[in-house]
Amino acid sequence: MKLKTFYLILLIFSVTVLYTGCSTIKKEKIPPQKIISKIPPGHARINGEITKIESVAENKDSNDPCSKAPCIAMVKVKGAEYGAGFPSLTINSEIKIKFQFTLAPTSKELFPNMEDSYPGLKEGQEFTALVSHIENIDKTLPNYQVYGYTLK
Question: 16, 25, 37, 74: which has the highest count of C-beta atoms within 10 A?
Fold first, then answer.
């Protein structure tokens, strides 16, 4: 009797192992997603070239970095990716951009508490940056601004 019980248990165990081991569980292979860095609304990632740097603006606020280093440049748009609500740019057109951390190399004199650093930009240099669009009542101010960039 013990032998029959043993064989019965062995049979049940074998059938269970075979059933679960041979069953086909379809695993859908999902191709790796292309990493897409999202561009926030009101912004565009541009590839640009500095075509002209405006001289240091006269500013009564001596704490403003733009009173010590140039901040505004004409930029030739070489390419752009847009976030929602950003007006489209014409490739190879020029736009006026304010660089909030100046076009000069980052220094402790200009930005004593800043951890990031930027090498500065000169006419003819190409860069990539996230540009924001703002509407200004004062038409002399640029509608575009950049906080950080990388050289190409």
Answer: 74
